[in-house]
Amino acid sequence: MFKFGFLKHDEAEENNISKEKLTINWIPASKVEVLKSQIEKQYEPNDYAESIFSGYKLKLIRSERALHKLKQENCTNIIEAESQHSDLIPAKYEGGLKIWECSYDLSHYIFENNVEFQDKVVLDLGCGAGIIGLIAVLKNSTVHFQDYNIEVIKSVTIPNVLINFKDRENVLKRCEFFCGDWESFTRLEDLDHKHEVVKYDLIFTSETIYNPDNHRKLYEVFKQRLKQDGNGYIAGKSYYFGVGGGMRQFQNLIEEDGCFDVKIVWKSDKGCDDLLLVFTYSTTSRMFFEKVTESIT
Fold it and tell me: 3-class SS at 289?
C-alpha cells in the first residue's frame, strides 16, 4: 500500500499561493479618451521604427522610448516590472510594451487568408502595440483597442494609431481605446450609445492565454461580446512553461462549454509550438439566439 500527499512545507507554500490569488486586485475596465495634445503631438523619426506586418509597413513607437517616458512619469507598475526584469507581473503589468511572437503569426494568417475587414467592428483584445487593430483600421474597420495597462494604451497604442494616419481626427472616429481587467470589460457599457453593450464581428487576441487563472475571464469576453455570426481568433503557444497556461488547455475550456465550434487552423512550421485557433458560435447556439430574438420581437 502506498500513501502519498503534500509535505507540510509544500502545503504551506500552496496555501500562500492561494491567498495571493485571492488578494489580487485587478484594475477595473474603463474607456481611455484621446487628448487634444496627443492628436497634435509631432513625432521624430527616432521615436519609432518601421516594420512589415501583413503586407503593411507600420510605424511603431520604440518600446525603449515609451519605457523611458513612463519612468520619467513615475509609473510604478512599469517601473516595478523593469526592476524585476519581468515581462509579466499579474494584475500590475501584463507585457503590453513588448511585441510578442504570435502577433506576427496572426498578422501573416490574416494576410494569407484574406480575412474580410470591410465595415466590420473589431476588437483587438490585449492589444499592446495594437498591430492587429492597426491592420483592421487600414482595412476600413471600426476598431476597439483593449489592453490591461492604461500606461500602454496612452504611451504606445494611441501613438501608434496617430503616427500611421495623416488625418488623425478622422481616423479616431473609427477607433476607441479601453484598459483594465477583462472581467469588468465584459460588463462595460457603451455610454455613447445609450448604455448598449457593443458586439464585435471579429475579436483577435495574441499571447493572452499564458495564465490559466485568467482563461475563464478571457473566454467570457468572446462569449459575451462576439456577434452571433462573428469569428474569434486566438494565437498562442501550446504551452507556456513557467506559468502553466496554453492553447490546448484553453481549447478544452471552449469545447467543454459547448457554445462554440472550435478548430486549430494554423500551426507553425518553424519548429516552435505556435498555434492559431478560430471559433464561431455552434449551430445549437445560433438556433437558441434565433429563438430568443423571435420571442422578443
Answer: helix
